UniProtKB/TrEMBL annotation:
It comes from the Eukaryota. Pfam families: AAA_18. GO terms for cellular component: cytoplasm; nucleus. It is found in: Nucleus. It catalyses: AMP + ATP = 2 ADP. Its main location: nucleus. This is Adenylate kinase isoenzyme 6. One of its GO terms (biological process) is rRNA processing.
Amino acid sequence: NFLLGELYDGYDEEYDCPILDEDRVVDELENQMREGGVVVDYHGCDFFPERWFHIVFVLRTDNSILYKRLETRGYNEKKLKDNIQCEIFQVLYEEARASYKEEIVHQLPSNKPEELEENINQISRWIEQWVKDHNS
């Protein structure tokens, strides 16, 4: 367990959010990741070591739905537009494909509550199967 405040390195006024210190995050998570059985949820992956992950899921959302979600969260105009552009150009998916073996990177739709539930079920099934495969 760590304090999130210790993992930031300043504040980005343009995007109205803290700046994550990626090196400190990796250092802080290293022991937990080595032990395995960890799920990491983050909006990017290029700074995480490849050895940490057996599978990567990239959640995708239709732009009109994403726009409304981000607008409801109170994102400023620049942050909102940049996030929508990121989704249009599949930036996070391409980043994941460039950072990890292509066969471990999977896209999941995340538009409706039913899809959220199915994604949880699919990820849970994958974890159960992985545990079976690696404990025999």
